Each structure stands twice: as C-alpha cells, then as structure tokens.
Amino acid sequence: MAAVRIEEVKPQVERFAAHSHIKGLGVREGKVEFVADGFVGQVEAREAAYIVVKMIREGKFAGKGVLIVGPPGTGKTALALGIARELGPETPFVALSGGEVYSLEVKKSEFLMRALRRAIGIKVREWRKVYEGEVRGLELRYGRHPYNPYLQRVLGATVKLRTRDEEKTLRVPAEIAQQFIELGVEEGDVIMIDEETGVVTVLGRGEGGEQYDVAVRKRAELPKGPVYKEKEITRFFTLHDVDVSLARQRGLISAMIFGFAEEVREIPDEIRRQTDEIVKKTVEEGKAELVPGVLFIDDTHLLDVETFSFLMRAMETEFAPIIIMATNRGIAKIRGTDIESPHGIPQDLLDRLVIIRTRPYTAEEIKEIIQIKAREQNISLSDDALKLLTETGVDHSLRYALQLLVPAYITAKEKGKSAVTKEEVEYVKKHFVSVKESVEYVKTLEEKFLK
C-alpha cells in the first residue's frame, strides 16, 4: 500500500510589509554584526541606536527623544522598528506620518495624545478564581429556539475537567457552552474558565487528547493541583484602551440619566487624569507593570510649530513613550512660520533630541539587502540578475531596485522560468522607470508639460 502523501498548503495571498524582516538591531554579545536581524550595514547608526536602548533600559532617557536623519531609502523606519524590537516583544510600536496629524474631525493635540497613549502598555497581573483542566468529557444540551421552531439553540453543557490531582464535573450555562462551540473545544483540550466573567480560554492540546502530526493548537501540560483554584492572570492594555473604557462608562451614565449617549470625539483631560491615577495605584500596589513603547513619527518636517510645542511638553510628562522622529530634509522652513531651521524642526526641540544619522548604502550592502528581500518573498535570482539589480540600486536607488523584484519574478514565472534572469530585469526596467529617468524625461519634453 502506497504511503499517504501530505503536502503543506501555502496561503494563496501573502503580504510582505516593507520592514517585516526586521527582528532587532542585530546585536550579538554586545556588538553590532554587519548582517543580522534583517539589517545590512548602517553599523554606526545601529550602534548609536543600541546605546539608546541601553539608556532606556536603565531609565536614563526621560525628557529626551530620538531624531533619525538621512537620505530617502537608508533604513530610518527600520532603525526605529529595530529599537522597539530590541526593547522586547511586548513593547508597543505606534508608527505614523507627520501628514496624518491634520484632520477635520480630530484636533492635532487630541490625535497626538491618542498616539502617545497607545504607545504605553500596562501589564496587569491579578489573581482570579478559575476552573482549569483537561477536558475529559463534554456534553452540550440543546433545546427549541424561542423564535424559530426549526432551529435548536444551546441551553448549557456538562464538562468534565481533570488535573494531575483531581477531576470535577461541571454544569455550565448557555453563555459558556456557546463559547465551547465557537472555540471548537473538544476532549483533550486544556481550558480555563474565569468564574467571574465566564470567559473561556483554550490553553492548548493536552496529553490525553488524540495527537496529530500536524496540529493547529500548541501542546499544553496537564495542570497540577485542584480544578478550582486561584491563578495569577496577566493581561495587556494600553493607556488609550483604559481612556476609551472610562469614557464609554461615562457615556453610559449620561444615557441612563439624560436619555442620550454622548458621542466621544475627544477624550476629556479629567478622564485621562483618572486613568493615570488608576494606573499609578495599580503599579504601586504591585499588580501591574508599565511598559513604555515607541511612538515613531516619520516625515517629521510636515509637523507645524504648534505640534512641535506639544511634543516638547509630552516628552516631560510622567507617562511618556520613547518618541522617535525621522526626516530626510536638510535646511527647511518650520511649517506655520517663515523661520528656516535644520530639518524643519525648531532649535529648542532639536536640543532635546539625540540625533542618529544614516548613510547611503554601498554596493555590497545593496546586494545583500536585495538577496534578503528576494528570500523573504521566495524569489530565486540568477547571478546576472542579482548583479544588474545591484548596479541599478547603486545608479538609481535601493527602493527602485527592490520595486523591480516582483514584476521581474512575475515575468519570469509566465515564461516558465524557475529563477529571475537578467533578461526579465532588463524587460521590467524598460516599463518602470526610476525617479532619475522620470526627471530626465520631463526635462526633454518640458515645453509639452503643463505648468
């Protein structure tokens, strides 16, 4: 009898973000490696970023911010993301462009305040009374639906849970039984039921359940002790989550008293002060831990003088994330004024910023980056295609060379080729021109273009 063949099915649609390959700053044993964690080159900038990380870890970065300066396509956003990744997997990372601040519905200060508070996390640890164990039996009870005689609805369930030391049979109401159905709970799963809220959590596949070579759920050890116990649970929120929750409670009270719900377009300062007091108290009691994150503002030169003033004040507040800015401008006017300043940023704010510079990539670095992005997207490149793409990156820009990867891959695939060759790269280069070529084209036909 022939062996059964199992093949991995890959998703039909895959998305690759511009910086999905960045895992950290590429530091090994205290030193920055030339190629590591998705980074190539920019060793000086990454070393500076790692010093910033060490300052943050030691709590000596209060009242400061970071400004990353460099030409387009030199890895400024990647560097900011690398700092966040280096700080830890739970570090919140909020990215926005300077142009996003301006809205007809939300004030600039409100937009930035929300972004700042989304970049500050809170890990709440609390003891909850829970039922925890491996499911050894599950029986759902159904009854007639009150509105449709042809349908049945779940009325409750009986579930048998066991640990290494005990076994209990529990009767649970319809709300919990419905969660069993939605989560696909079956015998052998290790679950936890919060007594107060009734929330069901599937922790994994236990030892007693049927094991598969390919499993959706991770393995979970059989719990010890009694089924019904007090257990420390860790939950993660942001300051903005707490703000919104308190604002909604206030809106609900207004609806109960006055008969209408107040639309929350702007969260009042008193709500945020209330949030801060709750968080401070929880942290002081040892029930929570504050996790400062990173607020990354790209194209900082698009911000105006009022926004810069707001950010300066925000840096000095008690609950402030790490603010990282990036710009590719030299001497430019500060938006909203006629004053010229380095990078279009006021001098008094520049004095508070640690400035990191990025440099244009060398040919060797461009070659390595193209190979990394090709591997990430499962694109095979021949030696001559890689050489041509590297030369294109040096002569024009790295971004232009990377933009040619997918069109060249699609062209090669249509021809039945397993790898992209020089022929496909030259073909797509004729159809998609670089910025440099586009400018030259405009100059040759300057009289025919509208002004």
What keyword list fits this structure?
451 residues, alpha+beta, Rossmann fold, OB fold (Dihydrolipoamide Acetyltransferase, E2P), Helicase, Ruva Protein, domain 3, 3 domains, seven-stranded antiparallel sheet, five-stranded parallel sheet, 18 strands, globular, disordered N terminus
How is this structure best described in words?
There is one protein chain. This protein is an alpha+beta fold. The chain has three domains: 27-119 and 293-357, Rossmann fold; 123-288, Beta Barrel (OB fold (Dihydrolipoamide Acetyltransferase, E2P)); 363-444, Helicase, Ruva Protein, domain 3. 36% of the residues lie in helices and 25% in strands. The protein has 14 helices and 18 strands. The protein has helices at residues 43-57, 76-87, 108-118, 174-183, 239-258, 269-284, 305-315, 347-350, 363-376, 383-395, 398-403, 405-414, 422-431, 435-444, and strands at 27-28, 31-32, 35-36, 39-40, 65-69, 93-97, 120-144, 152-162, 167-173, 189-194, 200-205, 228-238, 288-292, 294-298, 322-327, 331-333, 340-342, 353-357. The strands form five sheets. Strands 7, 8, 9, 10, 11, 12 and 13 form a seven-stranded antiparallel β-sheet that branches. A five-stranded parallel β-sheet has the order 6-14-15-5-18, with helices on both faces. The longest helix has 20 residues, at 239-258. The chain starts with 26 loop residues before the first strand and ends in a 7-residue tail after the last helix. The model is unreliable at 1-16 (pLDDT under 50).
